Amino acid sequence: MASSNPPRGDRVPKDLKGLLRFCAEATKNEDHTTESTFKRMPEEKRKWLDEFLNEMTVNPVERMKACLFTIVEGVDLDKKIAAFDELHDWCEYIDFAIDFHRIGGFCVLQYLLHQDEPVMRWKGLELIAALVQNNPYCQKVVLEEPNLFKEILLILDTDSDATVRTKALLATSCLTRDFPEAQKIFVDSDGFSIILRAMQSNVEKLKVKAAFMLSSFVTDKPEYKNILCDMGMIDQLIGHLGEEHSSFHEHLLSAILTIVQDFPRGIKEFRRPELDMEQILLQKQKDLAGKEESMEELHYAKELLKLIQENQSENQDVAR
User: Fold this and answer.
1) Whose C-alpha in 5, 181, 238, 281 is 20 to 30 A from the C-alpha of 254?
2) In CATH, what number does 54-189 get?
3) Nucleotide exchange factor Fes1 domain: which residues (predicted)?
4) Mind giving me the DSSP string for 170-202?
5) What number of other Cβ atoms are within 10 A of residue 149's Cβ?
6) Where does 190-312 sit in CATH, by number?
7) Verdict on whether the full-model pTM lies above 0.90
8) Are 106 and 149 in contact (CB under 8 A)?
9) How many Å apart are CA 66 and CA 51, to the nearest integer?
10) pLDDT per 10-residue tile (average), the chain, 320 residues
11) Domain regions of the chain by residue span
12) 3-state secondary structure of 159
């Protein structure tokens, strides 16, 4: 039977390497009834284990600095992308994202957005999204970088690469979430028109994410519903329902419902007879019935139809 006594003080492992070594030695004599199979580790396997253990005790700040150096000074695009990926993983953690700012990492963000290779631009935008997501400290710092947010909005609106525009939308969404100061800059920069133009693109992913952001934004800040009515957003969203059916329609109906719900002006706009929404929604119900993958879209259609039918009931009551 193996001894139950604790290890002597001079043998207590000081780190993970020492712990593994101690475990290997301790189990050597665990069973005296059989011949021990313990033997010296082959050099190649030992080298691999040492490298693995070193990676487990890595210094995040030093790794972020190394990644930045590779991204800015490197010439091999594949190595730059690998550095981006590692940096992104670190910066998803709030504390490491703050460390990234403290080591001067934010000074390279605008540099990344002006790179010729689209992958460098969208990786930079993806990094910004990771930095600011649910991170008030980094949200504030991004706004302190001169014109950085407006540069992101410009890229979202005008970049020639679909992935770059989609990542710019992601960065915008993460930056404005639960952050009134960024929301105001977005609105003052005609951000809703930029979102509308994104929904008018031929990139399905961008259209879906733009509609989703619109719904989220208005849910968080219903006071902006008047601005959306002023710019004819409800008419524009309804117009897209005439396009060939896709997953975009679910998010269109969600956005319309979010705008008009509990908002008398929006309901009045939505119920205008010339929009023919009752027939559109009745046809939606017919087309989507029994389709499990369309349950959310069907739900939104039913909720919107209720708003129209409630209006009809109210008019009939007044007539009586």
Assistant:
1) 181
2) 1.25.10.10
3) 16-97
4) HHHHHHHTT-HHHHHHHHHTTHHHHHHHHHTSS
5) 23
6) 1.25.10.10
7) no
8) no
9) 18
10) 46 51 52 53 76 72 95 95 97 96 94 96 98 97 95 98 98 97 97 97 97 96 96 96 95 97 94 94 94 95 92 51
11) 54-189, 190-312
12) coil
